[in-house]
Amino acid sequence: MAQIGAIxxxxxxxxxxxxxxxxxxxxxxxxxxxxxxxxxxxxxWRVAEADRDRAELIVSELAGNAARHGGTDMTVHxxxxxxxxxxxxxxxxxxxxxxxxxxxxxxxxxAGCTSST
Length: 117
Hints:
alpha+beta; Heat Shock Protein 90; 2 helices; 3 strands; 32% helix
C-alpha cells in the first residue's frame, strides 16, 4: 500500500476589527451621548439589536458611574473583534479601593466607616 504524504499547516484567518472612541465631559447629560454613540456604531457595524441593547445598558452604567464618581472627563472606547463587543469607559478620576468585609451577621462595613456590632 502506497502512502501519500501531506503537509498540514494552520493559517490564521484575518480578524474583523472595528473600533471607535469618543471623549465626553464628566456630566450626567453625557450618558445619553455615550449610549447614542454605542448604538449608532453597533448599528453601522450590523450588530444584532439585542446585543446593541445590552451594550447600551452597559455603557449607561459605566458612563453614569464615571460622570457621578470620576469627577473628570471620560473616554468611551468601543470595539468589535469578530463577534465580540468590548466597551471601555475610562476616566482619570480618583480611585477608591475597598477591601471585602468578612461575612459576619452582626458586622457591617461601609466606605469610610468602621465596623459596628
